[in-house]
Amino acid sequence: MKPPLPADDLLELYFIETRHKLLDVAAFLDRMERSGQEEDFRLQALKDALPLLQESGAARCARILEHFSDHSEVPIEKAPGKGAAGAVPTQPDNAAGESA
Amino acid sequence: MKYIEPHGHMVSRTTDDYERISLAGCVALSEPAFWAGFDRSSAQGFVDYFDQITVYEPMRAAKYHIQHYSWLCINPKEAEDMVLADEVISLIPERLSRPNVLGIGEIGLNKNSRNELTILEKHIELAAEHQQLILVHTPHLEDKLKGTRLTLDALEAHPGISPERVIIDHVEEHTIQMVLDRGFWAGMTLYPDSKCSIPRAVDMLECYGTERIWMNSACDWGHSNPLAVPRAILELKRRGHDEDYIENIVFENPKAFMSQSGKFRL
């Protein structure tokens, strides 16, 4: 369905907040570049996702989530740990972090 | 506005949080069994935990006029140890008759391993044998898409499971369509970081409709907000949705799903 709020009001509601979040992405990339870290698989996956923002069709969020997803189809032999990394690790034990 | 918190881990929250959600309009809450942030060393830890969420938390909630319900299982994060998992599963049947137990949950997958899948299938069998509702946890981040597919396949492979008696929780934009298309309920977990934000949850309601969908806060030991559902109510109002539309999502839908247990009362 089309959002019930008129488009101008919707823009007013979210533009500044979204601008803020975009600047956080830019600052994060700057920060990583200054640190010398350019190789990590998560960072590369994030950079590779950026062109998806320019796509049309109102499915950007789903497309980006799919981009970060493991597309294999069979269960793995053994869980390497409990955490998820946010992108598909190049090494199986790269999964980091824990979440309930 | 009155609402139901259908997925809250209150063992991780203070009594102040019960007071806050009650003041915000929460009239009922359900608490799935989960991973407590560390591995329990024996099944005895689960005996105590199951008592906590079936006996103690209902008393704590009642002081704030909140009906408390629970779900029993061993979470997939502890399912890699299959000996422990089998011991814990054996504890569940005799506890299913407790008055606040709505079903089996939150079961599912975490890293999509073979052992996790085996334990998921055992929980599904248990639910079918005892005609219980099921609440499913889907994996986080990069593991969610694959884990959701494997979970739906496992559920559909069991002839004793009806999809309308199963909620698949933590859906996001890349999994919600398949869950709804295959007849299951979908839960959106509102989280500050790793799951779904409140504006995105409202987007999904606008895109996929409100049938067979609920929202919850999880409010566990991680970064989470027990007031996420009331904040979503505010967001829905800011988006121009009317009170009937909102009440249907935050009250009528969870009531309809959990009432299938026969124990859920308001």
Task: Detail the topology: elements first, then pairings.
The complex is a heterodimer of chains A (100) and B (266).
Chain A: H1 7-35, H2 41-49, H3 60-67
Chain B: E1 3-5, H1 15-23, E2 26-32, H2 43-62, E3 67-72, H3 82-91, E4 101-108, H4 114-129, E5 133-137, H5 144-157, E6 166-169, H6 176-181, E7 185-189, H7 198-208, E8 213-216, H8 228-238, H9 243-259
Parallel strand pairs in B: 1-2, 2-3, 3-4, 4-5, 5-6, 6-7, 7-8
Helix pairs in contact in B: 3-4, 4-5, 7-8
Can you offer a commentary on this structure?
The complex is a heterodimer of chains A (100) and B (266). The two termini of chain A are 32 Å apart. Among the domains of chain A are: 1-36; 39-67, no CATH class. Chain A contains three helices and no strands. Chain A has helices at 7-35, 41-49, 60-67. Chain B has 266 residues and is α/β, with parallel strands linked by helices. Chain B has nine helices and eight strands. In chain B, strand 3 (67-72), helix 3 and strand 4 (101-108) form a beta-alpha-beta unit. In chain B, helix 3 runs parallel beside helix 4. Classes of the chains: A mainly alpha (100), B alpha/beta (266). Chains A and B meet through helix 1 and helix 3 of A and helix 4, helix 5 and helix 7 of B.
